[in-house]
Amino acid sequence: MKFSYSWLQSFFSKKLPPPKKLAEVLTLHSFEVENLRKEEGDWIFDIDILPNRPDCLSHLGMAREISVLFDLPLKEEEKKIEDKEKKIEKLVEINVKDTSSCSRYCAGLVLGVKVKNSPSWLQKRLRVCGILPVNNIVDITNYLMLETGQPLHAFDFDKIEKERIKRRSGKEVELPSLEIRRARKNESFLSLDNKKFLLNDDMLVIADSKDVLALAGIKGGKKAEISGETKNILIESAVFDPLVIRKTSSKLNLITDASFRFSYGRDPNSVREALEKAILMVKELAGGEAKGIFDFYPTIVFPKKIKLDFEKTRQLLGLEISDKEIKEILKKLGFKILSENLIEVPTFRLEVDIQENLINEVGRIYGLYKIPSIPPLGPKVMASLNPSLFWENKVKQTLKEACFDEIMSYSFCDRKDIDNFFYSQDQVIEIANPFSLNFNFLRPSLLIGLLKNIAFNQKNFSEIRIFEIGKIFKKEKNKFLEKKMIAGMILGGDFFELKGVIDFLLERMGIAGVWYDSFEATSEDSQQEVWHSTRIAEIKLDHQEIGFLGEISPLLREKYGIKKEIFAFEIDFEKLEKVATEEMEYEEISPFPAAIRDISLIVPQRVRVDEVLEKIQFISPLIRDVDLFDIFDGIEEGKKSLSFHIYFQSKNKTLSDKELDFLQEKIIKTLEKNKGWKVRKKEE
Amino acid sequence: MEKEDFQEIIKKIKKAKDFDSLKEISESLLGKNGKIALALKSLKDLPLEERKKEGERLNDLKVKIEKEIKEREEFLKRDFLKKEEFFDVSLPGKKIKTGHLHPLTLVRQRVAEIFQSLGFEVVEGFEIEDEFHNFDALNIPPWHPARETLSLGKTFYLKNEKRYLLRSHTSAVQIRYMETHNPPLKIIVPGRVFRSDELDASHEIDFWQLEGLMVNKEVSLANFKAIVEEFFKRFFAKNIEIRFRPSYFPFVEPGVEVDASCPVCRKKGCSLCKKTGWLEMGGAGMVHPYVFKAVKLNPQHWQGFAFGFGLTRLAMVKYKIPDIRLFNLSDLRFIHQF
Lengths: 684, 338
What we know:
A: Phenylalanyl-tRNA Synthetase, Chain B, domain 1; Phenylalanyl-tRNA Synthetase, Chain B, domain 3; 19 helices; B: 2 domains
């Protein structure tokens, strides 16, 4: 809210501190002054009033705050309303029908006013506070809203429809008549600024027998608008339920100075005073005769009483502050000390409910910046390590060692990504109120972000190796699935390079028992088309699928403008994390030399290398390692040749040629037992 | 071989200009047909006593000559190495191939390390949350102005699932954790949060926050100040001052805004702190009794502090990153700098 320095000054006889000083002190004790600038010879403060301080949405409230912070007394106000008790029931009929949404309704009637421009001082005060002057009547209501915080509204009294009303005496009279009620479904309302709104029954209105005259607490209507011809006015000052106001504001997307204040809550005990001030000002600036005030206030709100524990005050703030100081601060703020620890809360501080609210007041007036640093005492809590984060960091470190760059991408993706990756609508989670059409789904796979990242970075890099660890989101059987995944993607590499990286990663996580199975898609697996039709493997841990490794389908990558082959993997991190272990064991290094023998084997095309490797390794414990170093396809129709280095080593002795020959022969014999397998002789 | 001879020989060795001439000298003295060998051969005609004496003398000489030659050889080697080449040390070192971690990971790791050493456990939570944990239990009932004013009104909801949303702050994890753990507690929660805010150099819709919570019998704002001061000192590796200002969050009371003295200008005023000397790091305060009740803890028995900082912002300040969008864009020219 904008505050005028000269307006604030008008509440004090003594001179206020300079504007800059005022802004500094307010920022440290009350609210952040976001901006301070000179305008029309005045200083304007832009102050961010916190939601718990509706009392300060007014110059009066801010003056009270300043009075406390600088120990400056507020001027005594002169009260000079005439005929305070004059009633207007004989002149107007007002009926509060929804009493739960309107706890107090006051209205004052002034007859014979002259509508014209306001004096320039008033216009200027409105202008610097961001409100455009209209005419003296409207300006007075706005002025008093800025001064007291109480929104007011003036109706053209003669525009209110008259109704025949039966008096208790039996006499029938015809009177302008208003009711405060819920709107009817689809009832229409034409606002001051000529906008038409369709209302519903959770909205509150001020209406005559025919039309809605105002949207209660939010905006006035066209029908009873104050115009140049207006002679007689009815000024409203009321309290409406904050919840009703907020809901209506939000539904109609209509936030006004009034609705903003009502939605934070108003003190019903200040309602009449604001109206009295308004009537006084109208008489001064527009002439006319005040006929009296209607006041509906069925349940009077009394000040709350709260017990304050002074020790708790010191304990929560961590401040050495005496009981006396605490009481002094509360008294200055307008709280009453009823007995040793019973505090009475003025009704204009309606948000103060519990002792912690009082402690907050004490802390900020004393100065939160004065709180010292005191290391916490008491039993030490041992921080246990978060295993998931431990492994996450370990994986990141490992992939970094393997020359991968870590990226982060949006958790969102768009409709095109969903379609490109072959997800159906019931597998993905859509945002009800997306930021834009590029962000209307939650990513069901990390591959989307990685692919987009490569599409972006390929102009600067011919080789890219990236990974991301993050959450993916899917719908499964109408339940939300939120899962941590690890995925990587490379440009300028090949399948087996990436497979090597996964092997390295799993080794570092102490995970054994992972193998790669050729992927056989079932018809439900729509995602299979993300991958190249044959260069794709299921990564399996024992018998469970934990992820995929393969080449991204050329059709898919081309949609993202990527011309070169890319390979990727995506693995369920939560499954990995469960089996990961830090345990390692030293294996004795043999002091005896290793011997290498090569074997070339011809097998049918469809025989998998891991099958061959397993068979060789099974033959003797003296076979330390087997390395495939060549695959040759064109040897025979439907056959391929595999060449291996086989490493022999014993822990007890150096192996003799004779022993090596024997082992090699054994390997050859074993392998050739398989149908269609043949070991190539050296001479061949 | 006579004494003068020997002196001559030593001189010759000392003057040898290169390895070749040294080798020649060495050969002429110690070789098969060298002077020493010849002298030894000529001894065979001498009487035993003399032969023995002369033999010892020659051996002695041989050892001395060998030593001289070795010294000269080392001298020549050193000399040779000196003259060998022009070695340009200013040539660039070979680039090491390695990967790079995202700056937010580096900041998260550092933050976790600091808080762990202060006894805080690192906790994670759900990114899809329900209204109860994101709002209600945090004393933000439906239609509470805080749902709008604290930019929490900008919460993303899931389509056709009105109660579910993307968490708009990590404070939701406070509730999750207190529902399942008994005090005393000390946790931090680094995590992604989502807000339908602007998307420009200083606003993101998908960014990281750092939540903290400590609950015990007696915990005060002064305790929080000590913790947060220590954290910032270590994080920026500078002497950082902390200042509290009044603020309001429905789930704490008293609520404070935490300002840290600007690590760049040390309160002198610069472009980072907009000439104020202070940086707003986030909100904090003492856990509201309502929150304790919502997780079925007795507010009479427990008190605690909670805070929420912008983790992405911490990274921006630490590495002087001017545009928040760089994090999710992950341009590799950006990533390679870390």
